[in-house]
Amino acid sequence: MAELKRIAGALGEIFISEKAIAQICAKVISEQEGLRTPKQAREGTGLWSTLAKAVKGNGVEVTKEDAKLIIKLSLFAKYGVQINEAAQKAIKEIKARVKELAALEIDEVLVEITGIVK
Fold first, then answer.
1. CATH code, domain carrying 66
2. Which domain holds residue 47?
3. How far apart are CA 106 and CA 97, in angstroms?
4. What does the pLDDT average to over 18-27?
5. What's the pLDDT tens digit per position in 39-97?
6. What is the mean pLDDT of the chain?
7. What does the H/E/C string look like for the chain?
8. Cα–Cα distance between 69 and 18 in angstroms, integer?
9. Is the residue at 41 inside a domain?
10. Are 70 and 34 within 8 A, CB to CB?
11. What pTM did the predictor assign?
12. What residues contact 107, with CB distance under 8 A and at least 6 apart?
């Protein structure tokens, strides 16, 4: 994965990669009520796990296109969760956490709900 940010300091340089941003996003999703990445769902048991095995990857894609930082999420939602509210909350939290931890502004977050489980 490519670097998204390079920070030069007195002791050397720090590189922040797409993979690091993807890990921050996955952690934020794991903290959200009723939303999971496919990787997180596979780690469980029951229906979440069964459905998630059909989806490859961790469900988080970080890209930089035309100097814009874009996060694409493929998630599972629990039946009964207000999907729009949960997704909006996740987007807001992802943007805040990436800004806080990596000093990066996210231009766009796209959420795809891949499946609904009980």
1. 3.30.70
2. 17-117
3. 10
4. 92
5. 766 665 666 556 555 555 678 999 988 889 999 999 988 889 999 999 999 999 999 99
6. 84
7. CCEEEEEEECCEEEEEEHHHHHHHHHHHHHCCCCEECHHHHHCCCCHHHHHHCCCCCCCEEEEEECCEEEEEEEEEEECCCCHHHHHHHHHHHHHHHHHHHHCCCCCEEEEEEEEEEC
8. 10
9. yes
10. no
11. 0.80
12. 68, 69, 70
Whether residue 11 is contained in a domain is answered as no
Question: What is the amino acid identity at position 45?
Answer: T
Per the DSSP assignment, residues forming a β-bridge with 116 are 77
Round to the nearest angstrom and report the end-to-end CA distance of the chain: 35
Residue that has been written with the tokens 């989806």 in this structure: 55
Count of the separate structural domains present in the chain: 1
The torsion angles phi and psi of 19, rounded to 5 degrees, stand at -65, -40
Buried b (16+ CB within 10 A) or exposed e, 23-58: ebbbebbeebebbbbbbbbbeeeebbeebbeebeeb
In a domain? residue 97: yes
Domain membership of residue 4 (yes or no) is no
With a pLDDT cut of 70, the percent of the chain lying above it is 81
pLDDT of residue 67: 83
